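Box S2. Input/output pair 1.
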Amino acid sequence: MKYENLTYKIIGCAMKVHGVLGNGFQEVIYQRALAIEMNKQGLGFQREMEMTIFYEGIDIGTRRVDFFVQDTIMVELKALIRLEEVHLAQAMNYCQAYKLPIGLLINFGAQSLEFKRVYNLNHPDNKDYKKQS
């Protein structure tokens, strides 16, 4: 995939944070620590970036994404005992609503770090991925 190296780098930062902090903190603590780690790794990002959601071309509101990395990848953080399908669906919907090719859902709340890559199959960057599925 086109963004594989970048997603590996972000996941590596999350693994470092989880390795140091473990689980049990509020999401905002992991968000602050991940920002520090991504800065150390030279990743460009915006934190708590407000993005507009459109319905049929009409602005229907905004949603804050936890991180928007390298102007390409949406990163949604959770601090839950376990991820559920609704969290994955939420991340996938954000990718589609923001017209992004890929996003990451990262959960710091479990004993082991959990992460999922989510793809917007309607994005032109993923046209080859769609054929493989």
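Box S3. Input/output pair 2.
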Amino acid sequence: MNKEQMEYGLSRYGTPLYIFDMDILAEQTARIREKLGRSAGLCYAMKANPFLTGRMAEITDRIEVCSMGEFRICRALGIPPEKLLISGVVKKKEDIHEILGLYKGRCAYTVESVRQFHYLAEWSDARSEELRLYLRLSGGDQFGMDEDTFYNIVGLVNMSPYLRIEGLHYFTGTQKRTLEQIEKEIGRVDDFLLRLKEKTGCDIRHLEYGPGIAVPYFKGRTTESFSDSGLERLADVLAGMRWDGEVTVEMGRAFAAVCGYYLTEICDVKTNKGRNYCIVDGGNHQLNYDGQIRGMYEPHISMLPECRHTRSEKWTVCGSLCSVNDILCRDVSLTGVRSGRTLVFERAGAYSAMEGMALFLSHALPKVASYSKADGWELLRTEKETYPMNMTENV
């Protein structure tokens, strides 16, 4: 997005503001699909940014849904149930049965635990409806099931005429900077799938794999896994598996991060004990970069309007929270800092709009806008007050 487009969005919507460039989103998704080639399909984990879900449903093969709120977003958007993978650590019985009542076996369903399996099996057996299951294999953390439990669930599925194991779900975490860890994970899954078939006769034909590719948020830092060569190497590793089923690569951050911008106005400037501070109308309750700790790394930042004729100085950028931890970046070189100008933080398309301490100090939620050459500007969310959520409903 160029400066003129950004300035137009700023003048139209004000600050704080998130802007999502849908053209960049499509370009990034196309890059990933091209580099992975025929080795894998693409799944968008909508938790990274629900505002992008409608567009991503058009350009990826599947949407991962991890909560009833996310499910209701997909239903409101009219996304075909065949494109939904109903996932999530906690699936309440009533929630699962609500989804099943609406879409039956048209969605695919992950199984995180024995309890989740019984919820699905109970509904399926009572109605003689076939369901497609993705059993989640644990990577040694709280998610999914260990191998012994996995084998037990396979045995239970074999006793039901209505349940079918369509795939295995595997994801162990995010921001993996190199391919070495990803290669080891794929190797472990490859071994397990072959061992599973040998021990149980269960020949799983689909793998839903979240590689956890790292996005380079900060200046001077790169990630092998996010690069073109890294994606091509991932494609080679997937294609080289001894197991010969189909793979879908599930990601959120890698698709969404680079399409987003966070705009926040400088409201005050000061110098305390030789350090320059600028105070903005946003803060770390609205901007989150994975790995950032009290501003120790420098994000990609620009200034609106652009100023090139004054001397660059070091500034620490702080937000509007009454907290010493509200530091967006520390000692970054900025030119023309003064009240009324706007800082643009780039690569804010994934998680930033969702992960912050939204209710702290009862600040309003910022506006959200999108832009594309085909559709122009669209206001996706107006400013939302949060103070009613922080007070008794009887007042």
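Caption for Box S3: The chain has a mean pLDDT of 94. The chain has eleven helices and 17 strands.
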